[in-house]
Structures are given as C-alpha cells and as structure tokens.
Amino acid sequence: MALINIKGMSCEHCVKAVTKALEGVEGITDVRVDLEKGQAEFREESPVDMKKVAEVISKAGYEVS
Q1: Fewest CB within a 10 Å sphere: which of 2, 10, 40, 42?
Q2: What whole-number distance in Å separates Cα of residue 8 and Cα of residue 57?
C-alpha cells in the first residue's frame, strides 16, 4: 500500500473528490482517504508514477505534501 499526505481537505466532499481522482489513475485500486489524518492510501496493481498522482490531486484542488 502506498500512503500520501494531502493538504486542503476539509469535508466529506473533499474525500470523495480525492478518492475519485485517485481511482481514475491506471494501476491504482483500493483507495482509502482519511480526512482527519489528511492522508490517502491506495494499492498499486501496476507501477504508478507519483508525479501523475500529484497531478490528479492538484487538478482536484488539493496538494500532495
């Protein structure tokens, strides 16, 4: 499982937006976003470029920290 820290989430809408963004990345499955910790955890079924992960998080309106 990969774990990333995300800045800017403040509500369940944010959790859903980040979850949807990550689920759209090829190779990512089992996305779990923790609002209180400001973290997202996911499984890589195939190698995932972390720059791509940061990009989709940014497009969703949040920041990987």
Answers
A1: 10
A2: 10
Tokens of 20: 């949807």
Q: What are phi and psi of 21, to 5 degrees?
A: -60, -45
Q: What would the pLDDT profile of 2-32 be if each residue is shown by its tens digit?
A: 999 999 999 999 999 999 999 999 999 999 9
- Would you give the distance in Å from CA 15 to the centre of its chain? 9
The region, left, alpha or beta by phi > 0 then psi within -120 to 50, assigned to residue 46 is beta
Per-residue CA distances from 50 to 2, 13, 19, 40 (Å):
10, 23, 15, 13
Q: Is the pTM of this model over 0.90?
A: yes
